[in-house]
Design goal:
By secondary structure, the protein is α+β, with helices and mostly antiparallel strands. It has 12 helices and 15 strands.
């Protein structure tokens, strides 16, 4: 999707990845060992600007690059403990948490945080992976065994009203633009539906202040997403993503400038585009894409097929609708198994 947005800017995108990556449909892909600092430096020397679309590349591999966003931001976002500590330092509320490196640590954290709570690996977890819920402190041993002894963080459960996210872009000159808050609906740890905008001026202002703090403190260049829990009239940060984000995919059709377009504009130090947006709903396709003739029967539906091999629990594409298309949205929620 970054490569697709680049066409409108007359920019060529070259991807460091592996043979068969879905980006090869729209961009040149070079096979690069992303665990090899030398190979990554050699690749970066061939291009004018470097960004990432996954925070799971070791920050140490990236530290020698001129990278947007910088390696510090990526290092924080790829480690749940560092992330929580950084958010707290910047005055942004989070769930209660504790560092867990052993079963004894887990028992100590449970003494403070209690149950229900969630034990998460500090790194590499996404879409519910690397997580186990504890409903009672007696489940500590089984939960620790489930993680395989990886460094973890225990997070207390938040009794939230809903989940939202905010996406912002900042360019090299420090200009920042914000998208509207988006309401997100998850099931089994995977984002199923995003609804934009979530119209709450007070929470929008609060979220923008938080992201501005992070963007400026990190001298951040690119697109940043932060997921929040809404608890009454306040926001509790869940996690940050130093990249374009699934909850912002609706911006391709729903905003004057998509998050992908503004990511490219930010790292190339172009003027950022308008984020004026229209009410839009995005539905993720999990496991497999619906047949194309079925989606083609809905003229207001926008289909995005990522070209990924179907696999249970995998995001393989998304569908976007104007929010006014309530009947079509409800029908596709039913077809995708998202109806309650």
């Amino acid at each position: 999707m970054l490569a697709e947005a680049a066409r409108n800017l007359d920019v060529q995108v070259i991807c460091a990845g592996r043979r068969g990556d879905c980006a090869s449909q729209v961009a040149e892909v070079h096979t690069v060992d992303l665990e090899d600092p030398s190979a990554v430096r050699d690749f970066a020397a061939q291009v004018d600007a470097v960004t990432i679309e996954s925070e799971n590349i070791e920050a140490a591999v990236l530290s020698s690059l001129t990278l947007y966003p910088n390696a510090q931001a990526i290092a924080i976002a790829q480690d749940r403990l560092l992330e929580k500590e950084y958010l707290r330092i910047r005055g942004i509320a989070t769930a209660p948490y504790g560092s867990v490196d052993s079963l004894r640590d887990l028992h100590n954290a449970l003494d403070t945080i209690g149950a229900p709570s969630i034990l998460k690996t500090r790194r590499l977890g996404y879409d519910g992976r690397g997580q186990v819920r504890l409903t009672h402190v007696d489940e500590a041993s089984a939960a620790w065994a489930h993680t395989g002894g990886a460094p973890c963080i225990l997070e207390g459960m938040v009794r939230f009203d809903r989940e939202v996210s905010l996406i912002a872009a900042r360019n090299r000159r420090g200009h920042i633009v914000f998208y509207p808050l988006t309401e997100n609906i998850h099931r089994d740890g995977i984002l199923r539906t995003s609804i934009a905008p979530f119209d709450n001026p007070s929470l929008q202002s609060q979220a923008e202040a938080y992201l501005r703090t992070l963007l400026e403190a990190l001298d951040y260049i690119g697109v940043l997403a932060v997921e929040f829990f809404v608890e009454g009239d306040r926001l509790i940060a869940n996690e940050m993503a130093p990249r374009v984000h699934n909850s912002g995919h609706w911006t391709i059709e729903g905003s004057d400038t998509s998050q992908f377009g503004n990511c490219l504009r930010a790292i190339l130090d172009l003027d950022l585009g308008s984020t004026l947006s229209r009410p839009t709903v995005m539905l993720n396709c999990i496991g497999a894409m619906p047949p194309e003739p079925e989606t083609a029967a809905f003229p207001m539906l926008f289909r995005h097929d990522y070209g990924k091999v179907p696999r249970a629990g995998r995001k393989v594409g998304h569908l976007t609708f104007p929010a006014s298309e309530t009947a079509a949205i409800a029908e596709w929620q039913r077809r995708l198994g998202q109806s309650s």
